[in-house]
Amino acid sequence: MSEVTEIKPRFYFVATGKGISKVSPLNALDNALRDAGIAHLNIVKVTSILPAEIEERNDISLEPGSIAFAVLAQELGKGGEIISAGIAWAHGKPYGYIMEAHGKKGAEEIRANLERMIKEVASFSGLKLNEPRFRIEQLKVPRDFYGAVIAALVFKT
Fold it and tell me: From CA 86, how far away is CA 103, in angstroms rounded?
């Protein structure tokens, strides 16, 4: 049987951003990542478990080109659309949870979705979760532009 490498993060930070571009949706996404302060990272999307002993730190610095694991919500849009992306996270025992939501809808609807999602996961999993926290980014994409919004919980080992 082969061994699996265990990578357990000790810290995390939360980042949100929005961006626009006249050139492409990808450029808008790059601008949203830049606005969030994480465009210099190679982001690997992971699922939604928050280790019990993890600590939130806002002073985390990662070198350009670093591979960073993150729970990421993103939405792309075009001129005239309202787009939003958000995350909710709650510490808990034996571990916490992170949920993400996105869509061509406003921040209020995204938050309501996240509230329902985190309540359901707590109910079905039997986890004892603390009060959830939320970060949501919304953008009304200007006419003749592409737009992007992101919300990410980024891990650091």
Answer: 9
Query: How far apart are the C-alpha atoms of 36 and 90, rounded to whole Å?
Result: 21
Rounded to an integer, what distance in angstroms lies between the CA atom of residue 74 and that of residue 22? 19
Look up residue 134 and give its two tokens: 């939320």
pLDDT tens-digit profile of 27-57? 999 999 999 999 999 999 999 999 999 999 9
DSSP secondary structure of the chain: ---------SEEEEEEEEEEESS-HHHHHHHHHHHHT-TTSEEEE--SEEETT-EE-S-----TT-EEEEEEEEEEEETT-EEEEEEEEE-EESEEEEEEEEESS-HHHHHHHHHHHHHHHHHHH--EE---EEEEEEEEPPTT-EEEEEEEEEEE-
- Domain extent listing, the chain: 11-58+65-156
Is pTM beyond 0.70? Reply is: yes
List the CATH code of the domain at 11-58+65-156.
Answer: 3.50.20.10
Pull the structure tokens for residue 43: 């982001």
Report the candidate in 17, 20, 30, 32 with the shortest Cα–Cα distance to residue 146: 20
Whether the ω angle into residue 142 lies within 30 degrees of 0, i.e. cis, is no
Task: Kindly state the tokens that stand for 62.
Answer: 């990662």
